[in-house]
Amino acid sequence: MLFLELKHLPILPLRGMVAFPGSGISFDIIRERSQKALDAAREDDHYIFIVTQKNPMKEYPKEKDVYRIGTVARIKQTIRLAGGVTRVVVEGESRARLEEFNPDGNYLTGTVSLIPEDEEEPATYLTDQAFLRAVENTFEQYLKFGHKVNRELIHESLQKGGIGSVADTIAANSDLRFEQKQKILEATDPYDRMETLIEVLHQETQILEIAKKISDQVKKQMDKNQREYYLREELKVIQKELGDEDGIGAEIRAYREKLEKLNFSEEIREKLEKEIGRLEKLPSTTPDSAVIRNYLDQVFALPWQTQTEETLELTSAEAILERDHYGLEKVKERVLEHLAVHIMTKGKTNSIICLVGPPGTGKTSIAKSVAEALNRKYVRISLGGIHDEADIRGHRKTYIGAMPGRIMEAVRQAGTKNPLILLDEIDKMGQDYKGDPSAALLEVLDREQNFAFRDHYLEVPFDLSGVMFFMTANTLSTIPAPLLDRIEIIELSGYTSEEKFEIAKRYLLPKQLEKQGLSKTQVWVEEPVLRMLIAHYTREAGVRKLESEIESLLRKAAKKLLCEQKKRITVTAKNLESYLGKQKYHFEPMGDRDEVGVVRGLAWTQVGGDTLSVEVNVMPGSGKVELTGKLGEVMKESAMTAVSYIRSQSDALELESDFYKEKDLHIHVPEGAVPKDGPSAGITIATAVASALTNRPVRCDIAMTGEITLRGRVLPIGGLKEKSLAAYRAGIRTVIFPEKNVPDLEEIPENIREEIEFVPVNSAEKVLQVALK
To answer: Fewest beta carbons within 10 Å, which of 427, 455, 485, 683?
Structure first.
């Protein structure tokens, strides 16, 4: 024992090191205060108290910054090195506790008390041997991970030393953290000290074992990558020697470079890595390599991260729609409402617009204008005649000539993941044994599903949630109900003659002049010519045929300019026939006199409204009713309903009660080659029958439309606007229509409402009162 009572010693704080009794330790001193503490100890009895700092970064430690348990050591040797550094070798002699800490002065000092080694006898000899064997085995496992120690010193300690000294020797010679060593130093009981050492060594062994596994895996991967690198470099040299420097190897490198540049999900990356690996192993001349190459080209051609920046300005969209489209006020208003919601929700709206109307009414051009307003790429997909689900989802690439579906092809064509895609003519899709394409469209259009749309050819998910879909159709009757349920309908009716005139004047004529290489100074088309083209050379709800006629007119004018060496040609109403031939359509005008059994009805067709006459003759006979004029089943039933109603009103009409037994009725609708159907001619037929039976004439300036029931009620009909336009063109100024269609009057142009008297009716009795004289 060095001293029995408290002793005042210089204190030397160590950073990241722990001194143990019975073991030597070497360290360098740099700090001035530590140097002075060393000098003071050398001048006295060469004893110094060595304690470990809790924070090695602390330059000037205080009492709270050092551990209380340390080691009293004797200075064995000091060597002065360059730069004011002193190398010190000390020998630890005994544990000690810091009782009092004195930070004042030129160096640290303190009062310490020795901690004697516990001299109690062990429980048994076997217990000592068990501890020694346990620590020996644990230490051997620890040394397997490459730690270099003085094995002879450890072996000698195990043979001669006690439990406590063995623990101190092993701890001092192990590469443990200073916190772990301090924990062992503070264990004053030899058996506790040994248990602590075994526990620390076991934990370190486990950590080192896991670290070695990780290191081995990293090294294995590095070796694999290095091997692949060397093999690829050798392959490059071989290909260069064979003259195939830009062959399959260059392709593989290009594919891998693209794969690294794109931020794919793990699923897509694994799929593409697998396909690239297969391509790399296959000879370039095999059919499978061509299939894989085509597949990779298709995948990498898609805009996975490319998208255009939207322009979210409603005023700009409104200006573009007004610029490109004349009329269609309600349609443009509905589209702007849709865009307003799109802007407010930042593109998260689920509604999909479907523009429904006759051909040539501007459905496609509205979609183009919306794409321009939003600064989105525009792509049109024609769905007319499609009857295979694979046209939407694509063919599986195992089939010869397989390709992605039309949706993914449109996205690739757009070059951006947020285009506006127009699904044109969805009402003309079919279905057969190959599947239902409309069912495949359900996933495409549903934002809850299309964020991970899987094309059968691509076999990887693609996000379609950024795509804006528009649709067009001519009729809703052929669109499947589940698809119809997912779309918002905007109906476009036909243009009025005045609207067609303005469209031709503002858009069609200038467009075709430019297309034919002409100017207004070379060919001048007078305004009456445009009105004649509308009235007598076209019969349509839209303006497509009108544009075709204008194009034909300008072609013939261009030919005349060149052949006759003229500088200017003026097309007038008088010389129009010399360019386009005789008039093709003659609109039947209003009759000039009232007739018995003849009533003007109003009809809706695919090309807009039209008028049709219903004629009834009464002849002696046996009560037969003859229907002619190529009438459909619905129209025939409507005619029979009208006849039954008139029979029920024989008293009111002052007819003989058994007139139907002695007279035959022949109901005919002229233009017999043209199919006709629908219930809206009910009141027209009833009026014609009543006129023929009562011999009362029908007003020639009147037209009517409405479905009739057996009780004489008049039911609402569709297409009132188009029918009213037809009546206006025919010179009719009174229109009888169902009372329940009164709200539809708002859709009729104001100038036509001012010139036509609209008479709403709810019963056939009122119809007869107005129509019959």
So the answer is: 485
CA count, 13 A, side-chain hemisphere, 582: 3
**pLDDT at site 757:** 92
- Quickly list DSSP for 677-724: --STTHHHHHHHHHHHHHT--B-TTEEE--EE-TT-BEE--S-HHHHH
Say whether 11 sits in a helix, a strand or coil.
strand
What's the pLDDT band for 241 if we cut at 50, 70, 90?
Answer: low
pLDDT at 259: 86
Query: What are the φ/ψ torsions at residue 749 (nearest 5 degrees)?
Result: -55, 145
* pLDDT grade for 673, boundaries at 50, 70 and 90: low
691-695 LR contacts (CB < 8 Å, sep 24+): 691/596, 691/597, 691/598, 691/599, 691/616, 691/771, 691/772, 692/596, 692/597, 692/616, 692/617, 692/618, 692/665, 693/618, 693/646, 693/653, 693/655, 693/659, 693/663, 694/653, 694/654, 694/655, 694/772, 695/596
Q: What is the DSSP letter of 762?
A: S
d(CA 641, CA 691): 16
Among candidate residues 571, 543, 540, the one with its CA nearest the CA of residue 555? 571
Question: Alpha-carbon distance 130 to 340, whole Å?
Answer: 84
Q: What are the start-end ranges of the H helices in 282-327?
A: 287-300, 314-324
Nearest to 680 by CA among 646, 645, 637, 649: 637
Tokens of 299: 């995948």
Q: Which residue has the higher pLDDT, 102 or 435?
A: 102
Q: Which residue has the tokens 């080659």?
A: 673
> In 3-state terms, what secondary structure has residue 726?
helix
Pick the catalytic residue from 369, 680, 691, 724.
680
**Residue found by looking up tokens 């069912």 in the block:** 439
- Cβ pair 329, 490 in contact under 8 A: no
- pTM for the full model? 0.61
Q: Is 723 noted as a catalytic residue in this protein? A: yes
pLDDT, mean of residues 6-31: 88
Q: Residue 306, Cβ neighbours under 10 Å: how many?
A: 11
Mean pLDDT of 291-317: 88
Q: At what angle do helices 248-261 and 266-281 cross, to 10 degrees?
A: 170
* Count of C-beta atoms within a 10 Å radius of residue 755: 9
Among 377, 638, 723, 724, which one carries the catalytic annotation? 723
Token pair, residue 715, equals: 């039911």
- Distance CA(117)–CA(95), nearest Å, equals 8
Residue 120 pLDDT > 50: no
Mean pLDDT of 361-380: 90
The pLDDT, as a whole number, for residue 1 is 44
Tokens of 489: 């309908």
Higher pLDDT, 681 or 493: 681
Instruction: Output the 3-class SS for 662-674.
Output: HEEEEEECCCCCC
Burial of 400 from C-beta contacts in 10 A (0-12 / 13-18 / 19+): exposed
pLDDT at 89: 92
Q: Which amino acid is at 400?
A: I
pLDDT at position 397, please?
80
Q: Is 680 noted as a catalytic residue in this protein?
A: yes
Q: Which helix (H) or strand (E) holds 571?
A: strand 569-571
